[in-house]
Write a structure and sequence with these properties.
The complex is a heterodimer of chains A (about 160) and B (about 180). With about 160 residues, chain A is mostly helical. Chain A has two domains: about 90 residues, no CATH class; about 70 residues, Orthogonal Bundle (Arc Repressor Mutant, subunit A), CATH 1.10.10. Chain A has eight helices and one strand. The longest helix of chain A is centred in the middle third of the chain and has 18 residues. Chain A is globular and about 45 Å long. Chain B has a three-stranded antiparallel beta sheet, with no helix packed on it. Classes of the chains: A mainly alpha (about 160), B alpha+beta (about 180).
Chain lengths: ~160, ~180
């Protein structure tokens, strides 16, 4: 991995990390547009502070922090628009490129997971973070991160009997 | 973890939605702006701005403050030394407005006593008292005073003055009528 701060070809880093970061940000954002705003701000802040891109725990912690700030700032609007957005937005702006019905069922089961389990799953599966990195980003212990991951997989398995 | 390997592989097959091309452009623009802002601020720092642009903050060691601080500390140490050294002498010169003594012949002395002022601003007669050791009654007088001590450095002309309140009780023998 390269350092964003000194990397002229930052687009490579962006291509590698952006989809996972976007998915991670979507845990708190109500739309893809909001998630992209969060990722943009995180990228720029990371670059500005010249952090090492190899420190992925810090990068995800930055995204999470910005997302939570965003959520707080946006709470008033969220209350006004809550029901309509949460339903229509999920349909119009999916988080995954679904290919078949089994994947659709899997995505639906993912949506049912508690947030704390889903964020660990997202970081582990689609961002390929280690439990140490996840623990660092979420400020939890590695054991807790691993437990949440196992609980999430167990819940998915339970909700998808065909798996 | 082997129990979950099948569901893990299914999850990995799910592809997250790719970010829009617009996001890439926005980040590129934001980073470019950040770079230009940094360059501008760096250039502004280097340029002579005549006070128009904010100047770079530097750590300035304030020698004047250090000197004043050291002088004050020296004066306090000297004062503490004088107080500890001669309480008896001080008591002997009480109740008098003493003129400034002659300058010390020792030219090395930094501060020499320059005066002692004792102002009695309140006296209260607390009545007659009979001491065990004396047959004669005594009148007890309580005085509130303010004493001011002053030192002066003849070399530099600097002076140090300290003032504090004090209370004194005196017993005056009552003469028979």
């Amino acid at each position: 991995m390269e350092n964003v701060a000194t990397d002229e070809n930052w687009k490579t880093c962006f291509s590698q990390l952006a989809p996972g970061l976007l998915l991670f940000a979507r845990q708190w954002a109500r739309s893809s547009a909001d998630a992209e705003d969060i990722v943009q701000e995180a990228f720029v802040r990371f670059w500005r502070k010249q952090h090492d891109i190899a420190n992925r725990g810090l990068l995800y912690a930055t995204v999470r922090s910005i997302a939570l700030d965003f959520l707080r700032r946006d709470s008033r609007r969220a209350r006004r628009e809550s029901a309509a957005v949460s339903e229509s937005d999920q349909m119009v702006q999916p988080m995954f490129e679904v290919e078949d019905e089994s994947q659709r069922a899997l995505v639906a089961a993912l949506d049912l997971l508690p947030n704390e389990q889903r964020e660990v799953l997202v970081m582990k599966i689609w961002n390929e973070l280690t439990f140490a990195e996840i623990a660092s980003a979420l400020e939890i212990s590695q054991n807790t991160a691993a437990s949440r991951y196992r609980y999430a997989l167990a819940a998915l398995k339970k909700n998808l009997p065909s798996v | 973890m082997n129990d979950f390997s099948d569901i893990e592989s299914k999850l990995r097959k799910l592809r997250p939605v790719q970010p829009s091309a617009d996001l890439r452009t926005r980040i590129e623009r934001a980073l470019a702006e950040e770079t230009s802002t940094r360059l501008r601020s760096a250039t502004a720092r280097q340029a002579s701005t005549a006070g128009v642009l904010p100047r770079e903050r530097r750590f300035h060691f304030n020698w004047l403050s250090l000197g004043l601080g050291l002088a004050a500390a020296t004066a306090l140490v000297l004062f503490a030394f004088l107080r500890l050294e001669g309480p008896a002498q001080k008591r002997s010169s009480l109740a008098a407005i003493t003129p400034a003594p002659a300058f010390s012949t020792n030219s090395n002395a930094q501060f020499i006593p320059a005066g002692l002022t004792q102002v009695v601003y309140h006296t209260r007669d607390e009545g007659l008292h009979f001491n065990r050791n004396s047959d004669q009654p005594m009148r007890r007088l309580r005085s509130h005073t303010r004493e001011t001590l002053q030192w002066r450095n003849p070399t530099t002309g600097a002076s140090l003055r300290i003032s504090y309140p004090s209370e004194e009780v005196s017993l005056v023998p009552v003469t028979g009528q």
